[in-house]
Specification:
By secondary structure, the chain is α/β, with parallel strands linked by helices. Helix content is 25%, strand content 18%.
Amino acid sequence: MVVLQSSGLPAHAASINDHIQYLPDGANLAFLAQKIGASSPAVAYNSEQMALPASTQKVLTALAALLQLGPDYRFVTTLESHGAVSGGKLNGNLVVRFSGDSTLKRQQIRNMIAELKKRGVQSIAGDVIIDTSVFASHDKSMVTPIFATLIFD
């Protein structure tokens, strides 16, 4: 049962119903916003449904990203190097540049490594550098252990 209340919102505020069409198939949204001390919520959408706060936050973040970046935006993950390949060896650092793609799967990383191998890279005479510059206030990317495992298999 979907119940949408919108008491006390500015007249120009968009309805949640205007935006739920952009959620991925299978997404489940429950939301409640209530001013401290108020007797009723300012906005309630499936508010009786139980959900973990992180799950709700992910939906809101995804919706905000979709509205801000647009439906055609794609995150890009790249492998970069200025080194030359000689005798199957990449002579230089390999930089793995992640952009925040939450849908990136291990298989996609494996495919990137397979592409490196197709280009003749069998070993790296340098460092594997995980570029985390797009992640403000984070020192390490969560995918570092995954990538290290794949590179050295």
